Amino acid sequence: MILMPNEIVHLWLVDQRTVDLEQQRGAYRAWLSDEEHQRVDAFSRRALQDSQLITRAALRASLSQYSDSVPPKAWQFERSARGKPRLSDQSPMNELSFNLSHSGDWLAIGVTVDNDIGVDLQHRQHQASLCELAQRFFSAEEAETLASLPEARQAEHFFRLWTLKEAYLKARGLGIANGLDKARFHIDNNGLISAEFDSALEDDPSRWQFHHYELDDDYCLSLALRQPRAQDASTQFYKLIPGKDIEPLECQGHFIQLR
Predict the structure, then answer these.
(1) Dihedral, 195, 166, 31, 250 alpha carbons, nearest 10
(2) Which phi and psi (to 5°) does residue 104 adopt?
(3) CA distances from 231 to 23, 225, 247 (A)
(4) CA atoms of 57 and 42, how far apart (whole Å)
(5) Residue 202, phi-psi category: left (phi > 0), alpha (psi -120 to 50), beta (remainder)
(6) Burial 232-253, CB ≥16 within 10 A → b, else e
(7) 61, 76, 82, 194 from 88: Cα distances, Å
(8) How does DSSP classify residue 200?
């Protein structure tokens, strides 16, 4: 059993390539609710069904690490008025807050206690149109900063900003339709993040902490936590194969050591 993440964050990382789904499929499906079965089976492509099954099993498995008496099947979920998934009042240990994101081969699940949390994971795709995307979705200052960088650094900076924005909006239960440009971020040469919010968001950046991390295989991961900066929240990392293995991970600087 792992201690509850009070005033800190646990990030659970799942490499879907390491999951033997043919061996685990029956166990994973037995954990899911009827609604989850319907959602998984609604995908027409088998690959998407498999990815969704692993995602839902991994969420349940990660939550069960905080209790010796709550099996993965016992968790009950609902959605907030804005559509953000959360534990229902009938679920055990409903003080746990979580958010998840998957991209490519990797899934990331952030867990904390009684706090708004957002996680966004993106596989960096080196597109020639990143500056055009920034002009469309970012603030003018962010787009100008991106365009001023050497081309070799643009993808890294773009996806850091994108994931920070997505993580914040997810933590608030807002969609990107609310405007990626309304949450603006600056990352200094040491990787320290400062934020500025448009008045339309009705929020104070000093009430939030933001972190970004790098994974192998060219992935970028960002975390948003509603917790004052003066109350430092450490992040602990675990690699998970649902129903099988758990491995603590180290983070050096902003790079998560996966092997």
Answers:
(1) -50
(2) 60, -125
(3) 43, 11, 27
(4) 17
(5) left
(6) ebebbbbbbbbbeeeeebebee
(7) 17, 6, 15, 33
(8) G
Structure tokens at 230: 């003066």
The answer to whether 62 touches 72, Cβ cutoff 8 Å, is no
Q: Closest Cα partner for 51 from 86, 99, 13, 17?
A: 17
Q: Are 98 and 109 in contact (CB under 8 A)?
A: yes
List pLDDT tens digits, range 73-118. Answer: 999 999 988 889 999 999 999 999 999 999 999 999 999 999 999 9
Q: What domains can you pick out in the chain, each with its CATH number?
A: 9-257 (3.90.470.20)
Give the integer Cα–Cα distance in Å for 234 and 106: 22
Q: Which residues pair with 240 in a beta bridge?
A: 246
What count of Cα atoms within 13 Å lies in the side-chain half-sphere of residue 228?
A: 2
198-207 pLDDT, tens digit each:
999 999 999 9
